[in-house]
Amino acid sequence: MIKSMTGFGKATVDCGTKKVIVEVKSLNSKQLDINLRTPSIYKEKDIEIRNMIKNVLERGKVDVYIYFDNAEDEKDVAVNQSVVKQYYNQMLEVAGSLGVEINKSELLQTIMRFPDTMQAKMEELDEEGWNCLKSAIEKALADVDAFRIQEGKVLIADILKRIELIKSLSGEVPQFEKQRVVTIKQRLQDKMKEWGEIKNIDENRLEQEIIYYLEKLDITEEKVRLANHCKYFVETVEKEEAPGRKLGFIAQEIGREINTMGSKANDHDIQKLVVRMKDELEKIKEQSLNVL
Fold first, then answer.
1. Which parts of the sequence belong to the Endoribonuclease YicC-like C-terminal domain (predicted)?
2. Which are the contacts of 199, defined by CB distance < 8 A and separation ≥ 6?
3. What is the value of pTM for the model shown?
4. Least C-beta-crowded within 10 Å: which of 137, 139, 187, 225?
């Protein structure tokens, strides 16, 4: 099944006193590039999380955000008593040495605004918390995968439509070839009349050069190879699960035949068809970059 590399998924799971939210965004990329942002409690599971992503998404630039709902309101903090006592005793000592009377209640309120008087309790990830997180990641990745499948259907339908258009344009070339041959022959005859006035012409060599010239202008092979490449492109789409890279290579071969056809054509009408084929091919190449 053809998939796009563009996708988005989001999942929210209740984990006891908090909600864990996972957001996954993906774009096209040559390799799998994971940007993972998680709370510190999940850092120890970084490798496992990355492997879960790799097993589902395979390729693309993937941004993963894991966070708690209302995390700031639920942050578990405690008074750092040792630090507060040190501040308090030192302030009393300074006040006593200066002979300053001090309100102990106000002093405590002032001290609590000093650095390091409060500390966050380090939360440990237990098995239940990890299973909860895995559930959220799996749901978000499933959403991304479904998004990619839907996007892939639209993407590949557009690409195949353009491949068919290239085949159709190539099929219009033969109608102009007969007149093209007549034009080339007339041009050669005119040249030969000019050469007739030149003495000591090697007739055999001249005939060989003319045959060679006509063979160089023949585009039969290019048309056949172009048709075969288009056929192979469609077969690859139908048979392979993740053909993105291969489709890019086949598109390059299609472009090579179209370019050669254009350079050999020597005909205005065929050149117009070549330009239209090139235009469709550029759109195919651009779209193929997003195919997994």
1. 176-291
2. none
3. 0.71
4. 187
